[in-house]
Amino acid sequence: MIHRSARPRSRGRAALAALGLAAMVGVTAAPGSAAADGVGSPPTTDACRAATGFACYNPAQIHKDYNMGALLRRGLDGSGQTIAVFPFNHLPTLEHDLGVFDDTFGLPPANIEWFTPDPHPTPDPSNPFDTFGALDGLAFIEWVHAMAPGATILVVEGSSFSYIASHHLADVIAMGGGAGERAQGLDAVMAGHQDVVDATSYHVPVISEAGETGRPDSDNVAAGPDAWYVASDPLATSVGTLELSLDAQGNRTAPDRIWNDSHQLPIPLAGGGGLSAFFDRPTYQNKVKQIVGNHRGVPDLAMAGGCDGRLIAYSSYDTVDFYVTGQPEAAGWQPFCSSSLSTALFSGIVAIAQQTAGHDLAPLGPRLYHATNAFTDVTVGNNAIPDSFLGPGDPGDAATPGYDLVSGWGSPDAYRLVTDLSEDQQ
């Protein structure tokens, strides 16, 4: 059922994009195109900032920022690992687009496998929601490959997380989606928890994003804080979202900060986090019980993905930039922001840690909370959101010294974290 080539998704992201489009006046999709006319050159950080006010970054800059170089030079690139990803759409241009991405940024060809028992529909090039979903999936996979260029990427279509988890078809499960716990309901969350239990029984880490409209779920902001599941599962690793300030070489020019563009954009975008309504505090969070109380706290760490510091992706589809400009965006190089990209980045680091260790490492929680010296603390920003067309605002949480409910332990140093995870036997 797996076939070779050379993430359950949240309904919330499609709804969020639709609401964003409805909130913008006079926006129409660019004419659909199944392929870009020419590859061209990716934008520079300065060009992105000049065009939109927001920076964008390429793989070399992100590698520098997260101290990936020493790992990659030693051949620690995720080889022997399989990372399962779950795009929202079928991606018929994946091999072409990923090939352009790899050739441009000097990455080796990717090893792609497909698991398609229930194939997704192909994006309609004239439908901006479809093409936005395709960009989301393409960007996710391109950046998984950028972080772990030696890993196999298993592209999963259909409601197959349970099958992947229970049959040990991957070494890392990268969940680029989610929704609020209470929005999903206890029964759905507990069913998902059994899948995470199955994955953990094979020591397969499940990595999930913490959300992107602050603490509330975008489908029901009026209900107030609602930690995202799968991120809130105590057996999963939850990744918050940051914005970086880097120069052209990837050197930090200012401290990392919590993703929060909610006062600058039509959609109230900000990193997620908070406290689980359904899961008690796991023992590995006992050291931060003064922050989380008796509940599972989210996230565990945070990485790039916010709009001021978008990650450059390549897509063969014309689309609409729902999140930043609200305008049509031509096929080709398209800087992209999404909390799912934070998951993509961290899943690559986890694959390298498991390659280094020689075995899968889940549950990661106890290991991560013993490796806190491998993180740079994030103390700037918060995830407060204002009143908007989605509903009332929320005061959010602020980044503070030490562990907090918007950045976890902060931003990882990949070399130090891989060393600690692969050597730590709990």
Structure report:
This protein has 426 residues and is α/β, with parallel strands linked by helices. The chain has a single domain, classed as Rossmann fold (3-Layer(aba) Sandwich). Helices cover 30% and strands 19% of the residues. It has 13 helices and 20 strands. The chain has helices at residues 11-23, 45-52, 59-65, 69-73, 94-105, 128-147, 161-166, 181-184, 186-201, 289-292, 339-357, 365-368, 414-423; strands spanning 2-5, 56-57, 82-85, 111-115, 152-156, 172-175, 179-180, 206-209, 228-229, 237-246, 252-258, 274-280, 295-298, 301-304, 310-315, 319-320, 328-329, 332-336, 375-376, 411-412. The strands form 6 sheets. Strands 1, 3, 4, 5, 6, 8, 10, 11 and 14 form a 9-stranded mixed sheet that branches. The protein is globular. It starts with a strand and ends with a helix.
- Measured between the Cα atoms of the first and last residue, the distance is 36 Å
Give the low-pLDDT segments. 3-12, 17-37
The total number of structural domains is: 1
- Helical fraction equals 25-40%
Query: What's the CATH topology name?
Result: Rossmann fold
Question: What characterizes the major β-sheet?
Answer: 9 strands, mixed
State the total count of DSSP E strands. 20
CATH superfamily: Peptidase S8/S53 domain
Helix run count = 13
| Structural class label | alpha/beta
What does the radius of gyration come to? 19 Å
Shape: globular
| CATH class bucket | Alpha Beta
